[in-house]
Every structure is written in structure tokens, then in C-alpha cells.
Amino acid sequence: MIARQVDYIIVGQGLAGSAVAVQLLRQGKRILVIDQPSRNNSSRIAAGLFNPITGRKMVKTWMADTLFPYLFSFYRAVEEKTAQKFFYPLPLYRPFLSVEEQNEWMGKSASPAYAPYIEKITTASTFPAVADPFGGLLLKQCGYLDTETYLEAVRQWIAQEGEFLQEDLDEQALTLSADGVRYRQYEASRIIFCTGVHASETFRWLPVKPLKGEMIRIRAAFQPDVILNRGVFMVPAGAPGEWRVGATYNFQDASPDVTPQACAELVERLNELIRFPAEVIGQIAGVRPTTPDRRPLLGRHPQWELAFVFNGMGTKGVSLTPYFSEVLIRAVLNIPAINKEVDIERYNVLYWTSPK
Ligand SMILES: Cc1cc2nc3c(=O)[nH]c(=O)nc-3n(C[C@H](O)[C@H](O)[C@H](O)COP(=O)(O)OP(=O)(O)OC[C@H]3O[C@@H](n4cnc5c(N)ncnc54)[C@H](O)[C@@H]3O)c2cc1C
Question: Which residues line ligand 1 (CB under 6 A)?
Fold first, then answer.
């Protein structure tokens, strides 16, 4: 059989594998992507939200000043290249719960760290259909990615300019050596594992922890083009009048099934946020690949120098993958650029043992 030469094999085409594929296709590299979408649908079902101020305490998210400008130019460039629309910048509104919170944000809005992300602060109800008696915080540099359309657009790009195999990676058919990578009839210079919660055998020691999330889909006649976020987020779901509401966080159950408990929890939290009728029209579940220190996992295999990993995107795949896929590719090319906070070396020392 005549070997087919590629520069890179990428395993997995979720948000992580897609961003790596985009970086490599832009550089004119020959790539083979192997993906079996039925293994996990986390990227496909994600609400796609990106928001620089997050968490219960609403603090600036890690590396926001670097990640956010990068993601805007990254997704816009992919839209342009693929002639598809999937990137939707949109303000995010978070109602205040008290006068104290109002005051705190008045103060923060003057700080250079927060000012670039604040569109407006209101001190009286701004959206009559929302529970916001104390007004709220309107954030900019937020929005959502229609992940399904994005993944499909990247997949078509790969099929046109690279190669795509829809199958489970057969690790028995994979040979790693100092000289190259071989998979079935393909020979490659390098392989990058972007397999989400299905950590590959090659990087089996890395602590990817499954965190199940559920969301409901609702239909509601809420008009303003704004993402709501307090207790839950409410993000447009594509069709007019349809929204995704989420999400739950469950480390105990890694099954792909939706549960009545999660639906009840989301409906209860949504009822505290909105003052308009909404009908639940669906429910979805997925499993996020998280890490103990909530930082991504990037790096080179300690034994097989041609094997790399890009994983651990947790709850923030949309904002982390554009920038960190570039960091990974620079590391692959031996430009020492991996930030120690994300380098898998932090786990190699603790967990990796050479195979016998
Ligand atoms: C309910 C929910 C809501 C979310 N909302 C958001 C949000 O609003 N914003 C945000 O930024 N993030 C969100 N996330 C998180 C986001 O989905 C993840 O960060 C992201 O999907 C991780 O992408 P990934 O490519 O690493 O993994 P995955 O999406 O799991 O992709 C891995 C791919 O590799 C394939 N694969 C695995 N093993 C193999 C194998 N052996 N052979 C072939 N293929 C294989 C899988 O089938 C899959 O296609 C949400 C997640 C959930 C569950």
C-alpha cells in the first residue's frame, strides 16, 4: 500500500481540534483529522457563550485581555474564509441584587482593568421583563458562537484542503516512533490529541475530569438582543424566539443522559431571573473536559516527541481554544512559548511513568 503523507494528524474535532486544524490549514500544512462525533457532543451542544467577567463573584476571567481580542479576530477570520455566519458578539446583562452591588460596580467601572469590558451600569430597572429592580451591569466583548455551524464549517474546510476520517481512532493501528507517526496508510510528522473527556491511551495519565452539564431550550417572546446572566445564562439558540438556558455542573454523573432534576433546577433559577412566560421545548446534556487547576493542558509527550496534547478546556472552550491553539503550534515548532500554567509538565512529574 502506498503511504499517504501528511504533516499532522489531529484526533478529535471538537472546539479544541477545530482550532488546531484552523491554525494549521492557515499555514498551508497537510492535515488528517480523525473524529468520531458520537464519542462526545460537548462542543456541538455548548451554548457557545464567551464572557470576560465570570463566576459568582464576577471577576475578570484568567488572561481575558489576551484571549478576548484574539478570539474576535480568530472567529471573524474563519467566518470570512468559510463564508459562513456563526460568530455573534452581543452585550450581556447581569441584574444587580442590591444597592451594595451597584456601588461596587460603580467603583470597578473606573478601574482600567474593568473599564474596557463595561458598556453601561444602570441603577434602575432597564428591562421590564427581567427581575432587575436595582438595575444591572451591561458588559461588552461578550457574545456567543453557534458551535454547530462553526464545527461544520471547519469540517468542510478540512475536507476541501485536508483529509477527514469519521471513525474512532484505533490505537492498535497507530505507531509512534522517533522518526514519525503512522496510522493505517497515513504517515505524519506529528500527531495532536484533542479528544476531550476521552483521554487517549497515549496521554492516559493526564487528569482530565468529566464535568457533566445540562441545559434546557426554551421558547419565549423576549425581544432585546442581549444575553441574560444571573443564576443561569439565557443565550439565543438560533431559531427566532428560542434560547438556551444553562447550565448545571455535575462531577458525579458522567452519563450523556438528561435528568428531570437538572430541568427543575434550571427552571427554578430562570424563574428568579425573568418576568415573562417561557415554554421548555427541549433539554440537552454534554460532558466538559476539566482539570484540577482549571487550566488547559498543552504539551509534548515526555517520551514520544512527535505526540502532543490539547485538552482540558473545561467550561470555556470558546474563549480558550483560539489563542491556545496558536500557543500549542508554536510549541510544536519548538518556539518556546508554552506558559507554565498550561504546560502538561506540571502533571508529568507527578503522574507519568514510562511504559514497561
Ligand atoms: C451543557 C454545556 C454547556 C456549555 N456551554 C459553554 C459555553 O457557553 N461556552 C464555552 O466556552 N464552553 C461551553 N461548554 C464547554 C465546552 O463545550 C468545552 O469546553 C468544549 O466542548 C471542549 O472541547 P474539546 O474539543 O476539548 O472536547 P469535545 O467537544 O469533547 O471534542 C472532542 C472530540 O473528539 C472526538 N473523539 C474523542 N476520542 C476520539 C477517538 N478516540 N477517536 C475519534 N474521535 C474521538 C469526540 O467525539 C469529539 O468530537 C459547555 C459544555 C456543556 C456540556
Answer: 11-17, 34-37, 39-40, 42-43, 45-49, 168-169, 194-198, 213-215, 246-247, 286, 288-289, 311, 313-319
